[in-house]
Amino acid sequence: MDKISFTIDGLKVTANAGDTILSVALEHRIYIPHLCYHPDLKPFGGCRLCMIEIEGRGLTISCKAPVEEGMVVITESPEINKMRRIAAELLIVNHYSECLQCAQNTNCKLQEIAAYIGIEEGRLQRLKRTARDLPLDHSNPFFIRDPNKCVLCGICVRTCDEINGVSAISFAFRGLDTRISTLMDKPIGESKCESCGECVVRCPVGALVPKNMRKPEREVKSICPYCGSGCGIYLGIRGDQIVSVRGDRDNAVNKGQLCVKGRFGYDFVNHPDRLTTPLIKRDGTFVEATWDEALDLVATKFKEAQDKYGPEALGGISSARVTNEEAYLFQKLLRSLGTNSIDHCARL
């Protein structure tokens, strides 16, 4: 791929042809405020916060401006800062202000932008605040939608369209009434949303947050246990419990994306009804047993069925939560008993 050299704030940088100024700047750890940009999505250019100046051309938004050989980019100037400040103030003055009560506190892009630009309370007081009291949407079993915190960046809409191809949500209404909505403005739980949570993990503010959200104290790299795809995940651990799951962006299989089961289906790990020891039935009641007792019982029942009805009376269903090696041993065991009646819940 062709390499292009240009200058950002006096620093000479190299990029690939077709890259945008914003993506290259962020890759070289040169911060340019942005809200509607996400590296997984096509540029949108809605927030106007990533304004920069190209020498000889004037102001433009960096998320849509491709790099060119020899170009000189300026990210800080009185005119640039003025435009960014106005755009940020108009967002903040109409935004939910109780940050300490927000699940995205300290992880909010709008907070990050406000801290960088330096928002002044006196300037905000001169602006007319629009009162928004839209109802929260709790209809989805895994996450909450709060339209009062939405900044209309469109990341959720583009994620649902570009990444998942579902298009369950879109922009609706006009002017000050514009908001993100489902078809016919129904609750998200009644839409064609697949609950994958991809929009939730990309939301830059607190408009989309998981239910019962708890920040982990550490993360453990693992593989999703639900099917044979082998998606990479990071389990968020707090104490002895799993409190969150996020996709591993470096994993070649899923590149950070997860389905609804992989992202939200981890409650079974700490569920009080989860079996932790084998159970066998004695006198009509299940009682705890050792693994040796349980395996001996299974072997005995297998032998009885085999002797009475023949080997094809036996069958087995394997689980996607076992490794490939364990699945291989399982089918080898069943075939050694003389049956080909074997299935796997993943079938991949």
Structure in words:
The protein is 25% helix and 20% strand. The protein is α+β, with helices and mostly antiparallel strands and 348 residues long. It folds into 4 domains: 3-125, Ubiquitin-like (UB roll) (Roll); 140-213, Alpha-Beta Plaits (2-Layer Sandwich); 216-272, Single Sheet (N-terminal domain of TfIIb); 279-344, no CATH class. Strands 2-1-5-3-4 form a 5-stranded mixed sheet, with helices on both faces. The protein has a 3-stranded antiparallel sheet with strand order 10-11-12. The protein has a two-stranded antiparallel ribbon with strand order 6-9. A hairpin with a 6-residue loop joins β7 (169-172) and β8. α2 (78-93) packs across α3. The radius of gyration is 27 Å and the shape is elongated. It starts with a strand and ends with a strand. The model has no long low-confidence stretch (mean pLDDT 92).
Layout of SSEs?
Elements: E1 3-8, E2 11-16, H1 21-27, E3 51-54, E4 58-61, E5 72-74, H2 78-93, H3 109-117, H4 121-125, E6 143-145, H5 155-163, E7 169-172, E8 179-182, H6 198-202, E9 208-210, E10 218-223, E11 232-238, E12 241-247, H7 260-264, E13 279-282, E14 285-288, H8 291-309, E15 316-318, H9 324-336, E16 342-344
Parallel strand pairs: 1-5, 15-16
Antiparallel strand pairs: 1-2, 3-4, 3-5, 6-9, 7-8, 10-11, 11-12, 13-14
Helix pairs in contact: 2-3
GO cellular component, one term: membrane
Domain 4Fe-4S ferredoxin-type: 140-171, 184-213
Domain 4Fe-4S Mo/W bis-MGD-type: 217-273
